[in-house]
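Subject: Interface between my chains keeps coming out wrong

I've been trying for a while to get a sensible model of this assembly. When I model each chain on its own everything looks fine, but I need the whole thing in one frame so I can look at the contacts. Pasting all components below, labels as-is. Any help appreciated, I'm running out of ideas.
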Amino acid sequence: MYQYNEFDRQLVKERVDQFRDQTQRFLDGELSESEFLPLRLQNGLYIQRMAPLLRVAVPYGALSSTQLRKLADISRKYDKGYGHISTRQNFQFNWPALADVPEILNELADVEMHAIQTSGSCVRSITADPFSGVTPDEIEDARPYAEILRQWSTLHPEFAYLPRKFKIAVCGSESDRTAVHFHDIGIVMTKDENGETGFEILVGGGLGRTPVIGTSIRKFLPKQHLLTYVEAILRIYNQLGRRDNKYKARIKILVRALGAEKFTEMVEQEWQHLKDTPSTLTEAEISRVSAFFKPPEYNLNADTSKSIQLNENKEFSRWYSNNTRRHRQPGYRSVVISLKGTGTPPGDISDYQMELLADLAEQFSFSELRTSREQNLVLPDVEESQLFEVWQALKSNGLATANIGTINDITCCPGGDYCSLANAKSIPIAEDIQRIFESPETLDELGEIDLKVSGCMNACGHHHIGHIGILGVDKKGKEFYQVSLGGGVGESAAIAKILGPSFSQSEVAGVIKQITDLYLELRTPEERFIDTLDRTGIEPFKEKIYAKTH
Amino acid sequence: MPKLIKENQVTEDDWLLVSADEANNPLPEGKLIVPLELWNERQSVLLARDHELGVWLDSNQAPELIGDRLSELALVAINFPAFTDGRGYSYAQVLRGRLNFAGELRAFGDVGKDQMFFMKRCGFDSYLLPDEKDPIAALQALSSFSDTYQSAQDQPIPAFRRNG
Ligand code: SF4
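Reply #2:
Try treating it as a single job with all components included. I did that and got this:
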């Protein structure tokens, strides 16, 4: 993991001081609510329905045992003893008191964490694959570049007051687990014909009110030009992005208005002025940062016999096949810990669970964890021979739910229970669905299905890119839900299509059941849900649902 | 009176800013900062005066509009109609970086303590604060951070090339 040096540490501490002063001026009445708002947002602080929400940055999802313990501690001391993993791999506290926030930030700084730019109209924290560095399909580890971008974007003086928020993801593997096409800038690691590392640059993707798949504006950017090129894109956006209408302020609208060709031309022109300036990356810097992400000291004699999979325990075997992933290192697996147990809001984790996982990571995974876009936690490096032990520990603490990748591994925004922007609640919808599909046999029969729920158009639950997406809508003051089908990321990047008129809360789970029933009817033996849907299209599903209910 | 911060101190302002509304009035005496439209219309009259000249850009007026006439200007001012309108930061970077403007670069409008550190980094060197703002507190904010990661006008060499 990246480790702060004196420079990083001082900067984060000075940011804490600055925010302490801003909060004090607000509490003293010197700063008005409207003046304080953009300042607190730049530091991850929303005022929600019940209380403030503090979003702590977990850059590209990397978390150490020490950091997770600190989060547990803070949740107990300043909050209600739990926290939440967001769909951008960050960590949220739901109930801190405003006056405590500077002190929370101060404590976070002690473990090299902060909340800088986790919200507001600025460059947000950078996301990457939670399996970076361990996945067999990796082109190159994205983390050093994500860290380089984190440093570059932190308190960037030119881009603190952009037209709107700005999200960047770096994808370093063949199969995309970052939703790279749905970011303001998507950076795809690639190699040229000489084997040199570089990036394909996608621009203008996004979800929200107007979902758009990002456009490739450069097929290959040599790695040393990363920062100057991204800077050129942001400079164009900062000057020309719309500021009169917040729904039209994202870069996707600008790219669309200018046309991708014109936009690209402007970026390239701007870049000519920035190219080869001192912001050009040096080999020394790339290797300095990369050194933090070297593989840990794996046990070279790890048991590779796979005997573990033959374990007699059915429950364990099921967990093994659903919740662990292939690893680059022989004899190792990555473990996904499901935070999707039925009855707990998706992505929520209690203080004692955090501490348990911190301990497990320390004992079995080189003290490291990752957060995922699906709101789960990952132990990246566990020896196969120790999986049974890990599973037992997880199981006795309610953390061995074997539903990763299934329909019950629901991505879900906080919705109407917490969020003041919501049209409808999302957590109860997730629970209704989980109850229907809870039996292991049902889940396994259905196989891979990605279901995502958002409480409003802002799409924090990424409903547009779920195989099944559910969106809370407001119909004459009542909470309704629109269902869409067929979203995806990576090579099959697609925006889900709306099935038809929306449903009341009590209908939703039943509708999802009808959808999966029809899938079981229509599928060929080897087809996953999304394959059947691709083949048949949405029509049969429409017919089935609306023939009965309307 | 609005308060001016320049060269790291609170100081008297000897420039007079002509607002867009005043553009049709007879020109006042002294050093003027005129709206871009006025300069476009009456460039020769303005240059014939016996004073240094400044032009101000609104937040939708990119510096390229005056790029080829910068040598005639002692000062360029950029308006921040709201502090959340951040176009002026890029304008400043372009004026200093690409267009090599070496005169005074002034921020005015909704300028406050919490923005000035970033403004300084982008190349501003004077700040006209609204009446109600405390200039001493603002002055201190110019040194909120002792060092920074990325290159900008105040420090063109990014940290990674300095600390390596
Ligand atoms: S999608 Fe809407 S309801 Fe859900 S967290 Fe985002 S803003 Fe709130």
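Reply #3:
Confirming on my end. Chain A has a mean pLDDT of 95.
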